[in-house]
Design a protein that fits this description.
heterodimer, A: mainly beta, three-stranded antiparallel sheet, 8 strands, elongated, B: Immunoglobulin-like, 2 domains, 9 strands, disordered N terminus
Chain lengths: 111, 162
């Protein structure tokens, strides 16, 4: 994984919403999600390296969190629902096994 | 993609090595040996895991809508979607939902934690399944009730590439 490019997070959600509206958010991040079960050509086990946690906050308050195991597919996709109470920013963060954190944010205007 | 990489790709979620496959070809006893070395969570392992997480709490049926394919052609990418019936208010919401796979090397697939800010206890992800197996969902409600649901997924080409 060291020689692969930095994971790119992608978030798709509307930029405007009505107050209290429930919207679907779709997220995707490029990551190998190395399960720790595979063996390389020389028979050595490839060490596990996955994104273990995905967190969503809105204006600093936690909305939802997901703990991913090694059974989550490569390039993890996740969709879920959020309610937009007021204008603000959704922050998404992905925590890697090696401690790196990949972030994305999306401002949503209520109007 | 270069050649050695694609051969790595092949063994995916499973621990089944080329040697195990070879044993399979050698004969019944060897084949049995090959299978026994296959590390996978058995249904008992899932039951044990649920017990350590929730103790002796009563497991209720219902409330969880699981959306998984009956037949998954590719075990590397199996769509999993769910929704737990709940008003999702400050007093009554779904705290968490956990997914277990009986036939994967690691039984715990993923857990989702919700707050009263989540309007629906619903999400969709994609998971890897080593073989045909049951997926078990366990939802924890804010009032302490535990609900479960299960679904069998037949995997045509497992995470093992077999």
């Amino acid at each position: 994984m060291a020689d692969t490019p930095k994971p790119t997070p992608r978030v798709r959600m509307p930029a405007t919403a009505k107050a209290g509206e429930v919207i679907e958010v779709k997220t995707l991040i490029s990551h190998e999600m190395e399960s720790g079960q595979r063996k390389d050509a020389s028979g050595q086990t490839v060490p596990r390296r996955i994104i273990k946690q995905f967190t969503v906050t809105f204006n600093g308050r936690e909305v939802m969190k997901a703990d991913w195991g090694s059974a989550v597919s490569a390039n993890p996709y996740q969709s879920f629902f959020v309610r937009v109470p007021e204008t603000g920013t959704f922050e998404f963060s992905w925590l890697d096994d090696d401690g790196s954190v990949y972030k994305a944010e999306q401002k949503v205007t209520v109007g | 993609m270069s050649l050695p990489q694609s051969s790595v790709e092949h063994s995916a979620v499973c621990v089944r090595s080329r040697r195990d496959l070879f044993k399979l070809a050698l004969g019944t006893s060897a084949a049995l040996l090959g299978f026994s070395t296959l590390a996978s969570a058995a249904p008992e392992a899932v039951v044990a895991e649920i017990k350590t997480m929730f103790g002796d709490k009563k497991l209720l049926d219902g409330k969880i809508k699981l959306d998984l394919p009956t037949i998954a052609e590719n075990g590397l990418v199996v769509p999993l979607a769910f929704e737990v019936e709940s008003p999702m208010t400050d007093k009554d919401y779904v705290k968490a939902i956990h997914f277990f796979a009986e036939g994967n090397p690691n039984p715990l697939v993923a857990s989702f934690m919700f707050t009263s800010l989540s309007p629906k206890a619903a999400a969709a992800i994609r998971i890897r399944l080593a073989t045909t197996q049951n997926i078990i969902a366990v939802a924890e409600m804010s009032n302490g009730e535990i609900y479960t649901a299960r679904k069998e997924v037949k995997v045509t080409i497992g995470g093992c590439g077999g």
